[in-house]
Each structure stands twice: as C-alpha cells, then as structure tokens.
Amino acid sequence: PALPEPERETALSAQPEDPEPVKQPEPEAPRAVVYTWPVKGEVLRCFDLDTLAPDPTMGDWRTHGGLDISAAADTKVLAMASGVVTEVKRDGLMGVTVVIDHQNGVTSTCCGLADPAAVSLGQKVDTGTVIGTVGSTAIAESALPAHIHLETTKDGAAADPLEFLPQS
Question: What's residue 147's pLDDT?
Fold first, then answer.
C-alpha cells in the first residue's frame, strides 16, 4: 500500500542522499603451509613403494606406504599442518586413524593412535594441534616399538612424508 502524500514526502526526505559505502573485508592472502613433525623420534621405517622389505609383524615382504616414527606411548601426536579433519576411525589393521585435508592437495593420515583420538570429524586444526597420543592400536605394526605410522598424499597420489616435514 502506498503512503499518503505527506507521509511519503517525509519518508523520502529522511533518506540519505549519498549513503556511505559498506567496506567489504579484504580477502585473506593464502598463508604458506607450515609443517611440523607429528612426534619427535627416530624413523623406524621409511616410505618406500618401490622396494620389498621384510615386515617384522606380518612376516612377509612388502613395500611401506608411510613413515614409522618412534615415540613413547602416550606422547602427544600433533597435526603436521593446518587443515580440516576428514576422517576419525578405527582401522582393523592400522588402529585409531586421523586423516587431515591440508587444503593444498596434501592430506596426512596418522595411524596407531591411542583410543580415543583428540579431534573430531570436521574440526579445523592448526599446525601443532594435538590430534591424539601414541598408542598400540595398529596390530599390523605391533612388532615395532611404540610409534606412529604417518602417510601423506599429494593430489591423490601417495607421497613420502619426508617431502613435507622439516629437515630437523
């Protein structure tokens, strides 16, 4: 319904002639991804998809699609980079597992954590966020001392975690 003429004029005269533009926030510049070791420890087994090696737990020869890093049981395990948790599961062979999408084509999968994990599905994490503790849930690697098993992918293909982790 239209306003009566005197009310319409008052309503129109109350309008500012040149409203202030609304400032849109500047988009955040992409931040460089910072990687860290999930735990500090000796590398027990390296990533190697080309060479068969004896597997101490399974008793056969196989390749190794991850990096096994020793650490005492209950040691805090950190997110190797910022991202979003896309899976938290208990794998029949690899135990409690956390998968993080680092949103730059890289994902990390950390296996053998104690139950329960310290993160949940959909949670955003920063580099160094505690995702769990070292456990003994990975029966496929139970012959090794306490450790975590770390796998990474780049654009969907298996990649050596050492390509991302700092040298020291």
Answer: 96
Residue ranges, the chain, pLDDT below 50? none
| Per-residue model confidence (pLDDT) at position 137 | 93
pLDDT 10s digits, 114-123:
999 999 999 9
SS (H, E, C) the chain: CCCCHHHHHHHHHCCCCCCCCCCCCCCCCCCCCCCCCCCCCCEEECCEEEEEEECCCCCCEEEECCEEEECCCCCEEECCCCEEEEEEEEECCCEEEEEEECCCCEEEEEEEECCCCCCCCCCEECCCCEEEEECCCCHHHCCCCCEEEEEEEECCEEECHHHCCCCC
